Structure formats: structure tokens, C-alpha cells
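Support reply, case 0932

Customer input (verbatim):
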Amino acid sequence: MMAFNSIPILDLSLARDANTKPSFLESLRSALLEVGFLYVKNTGIDDELIEHVIGQGKAFFDLPEDKKLEVQMKNAASFLGYNKLGNEITALKTDWREQIDLSTPHPLPTASDPLYYNLLSPNQWPDPDHLPMFRPTFESYMSQMSTLSTTFTSLIAEALGLPPTAFSRFFDPDQQHKLKIVKYPDLSCLPADQRSQQGVGSHKDSMLTSYLLQASHHRGLQAQNISGDWIDCPPIPGTLVVAIGQGLEALTHGVCASTTHRVLSPAAGQGPRFSIPFFQGVSYDATFETVDIPDEIMEMRSEIWRKRGVDRMDDVEFTFTKGRWGHLGDATLTNRVKSHPDVGERWYPDILAKIREEERKVREGKERGREAVTEHVREKREMDATGPLAAMKEVTV
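Our regenerated output:
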């Protein structure tokens, strides 16, 4: 069994029919165990709403700069709001994208709440005088996507031989879900000395599942298979791209593996790429518990890896390492500070300082490793130049 070289497409309408649901669950199980990335079609989301979401999303980036900066992310401790081009970091490199982050509605936390409750806060909405339909459009879309993601998670549970409610205990009654509206300018719009193709660097999504609406015709999204190859995920009209997150991998003992993916910036002259990913949340109070996966499903997963006979090519840090964090919220907050250091400087300087110290130690460790290799090579060359083999060469000459 080889590594995947294409992304499966699943028809959600089959899950709504008792006669076709078993075959759908079988296809879903295969996608979960073998790929971790898939398209879904016939989602039930209204086509007209999708058109409005795309139109309003693009319109946001046409606002004057000062109107966008009125809702910039560093205004608040929630990591919700607008990010200027080149203001986010993934895999220690700049992401060349412009974006606004939104969330399902939540009030401000109280002084007695854990620090990570800052992530549960009201949105920063753009000025309704300029975009009167923006807020109602995205509130409606997030509401429908919340329902879709909950339904899809129940189908994942059934595909793994679990009750539909197997993951319900990991959600809050008013569970937060998030959404980004993203613009990736083409390379001609980037600074001449910064024309990297990293729209967003190699990463895994954090929570359970995410649902990407590719809002323009551009390619650029790629998923990495276990051999380390990058597989294109081109836009397909009428679909969402579903990525399995690290949270689901942790909850299922690695059965549902989260898949590394990235976005390449459009080539010069192609115009900007737009995308609107929706991220299903998990309770920030979760403590890295797991669900009991049936033995036969665990064996299926083990058999897939045995047949492939290769190690997983994956250098993305796993967020949900048990024992490292007290709660999911602690891990999530730290990751947000790492991605958005300007917000960290203003609201979480202690966390940012700790992150930078850890990164410094990693850099120094790598530098020591390089120095050791260089010294080893130098010593070997000296031995080759002065040892018995060198003397034999002189005699031969």
C-alpha cells in the first residue's frame, strides 16, 4: 500500500440516506486512516450563502487601510481581528497573507477565569457603514458551519465504530468555533527581497476538524503524504476541504492522523488567492483525554502502516503532547502567541519571552550540531592527508 497521491471526495448526501450511509462510513474510515485530508460535497450549506460569504470576504480586503486597522488583532487579547500582510509566523518563517480572524459569539471573560479564556471574546467587526452585510453574512455562515462540523464529527465517530456522541463530552455547551478570511497576494505584490512562496508554512490544524472554502480559482493548497511528497488540492466547485486536526489525532490514539499541509503563494501576475477556513473548536478546559477505539480499528491502522513499511515524514511539532500542558487552552494560547508575536508583546510578554528562550536554545543546539559535523569533516580530511593512504599515494606517484 503506497502513500496517497490524490485527495478523496466524499458525498455527504450519502450519509443522509439509510441505504447508502454504510458505504459512506466505509469511505470516510478509509479517508481518515489513510489520508487525513478529504473533500466533501453536497454539504447542505446554502449555495447563495456561500456566494455572499465569498463576496463579503473579498470586499473586506478592499476597505481602506485605516478601516482594516480599526479591527487589527493586537487591539485585543483574544487573537481575533485583522492581521496585516506578513504579520504571522508559521514554522519560524513569515506567512505572506493578509487575514481577519472571527469566532462564534462569546462575552468577555471575567477576572477569575483562566488566562486562556481570553480566547473566548467578542469579535472585532469591520465598520457596518462600509460593510453592512459583513457581520450578518458571517454570523449565519458560522452558525451553519457549526452544525455541519458537529454532524461530521458524529459521522467520524460512527466510522470508527463508536456511538455518534463519542466526542460530545469534549465540547462546551456554547462551544467556540473560529473562521479566517484569507488573502494571499501573488508574488509580484510582495517586497522584492521577500518573494517567498510561503503563503502559509507547513503546519497541522489544531483542533478536531477544519473546513476550507477555496474562494478563488487558484491552486496552492497542498497536503503532505507519509513519503514527504506534496499533493495538490485544487479548488473543486461545490466542495469544502476537510483537514483532520491534531486534537482528533490525540483523542483517537493516532488512528485519525492529522495531515501536514501548506499554501504556496500565487505566481506573479495570477492575482490574489482567497480562502475561508472554518475551524471546529474543542473545550479549552479539556485535559488530553482519549476515547476507547475498537481493537479492530486500531488493527486496521497498524496494518496500513505495516504495509507501507516507511516512517512518517513529518517534522511539524505536535501540539497535544500529553503531560506537557495542563489544559488544551494552555497549549492553544501558547501557539497563538508564537504565531502572532505582536499580540504577544502587548498582551502576553511573559509567554512570548519563554517562547523566544526556547527557540534560542533550539537554534543554539542546531548550531552546535553543525559545528560538530564540520569539525568531524575537518579531522577526517586531516587524517586522509597525513595517514597511511596518503603515504601510499606518494609512493604510487
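We compared this against your earlier run and they match. Two observations from our side: The CA atoms of residues 248 and 254 lie 8 Å apart. The longest strand covers residues 178-184. Please reopen the case if you see a mismatch on your end.
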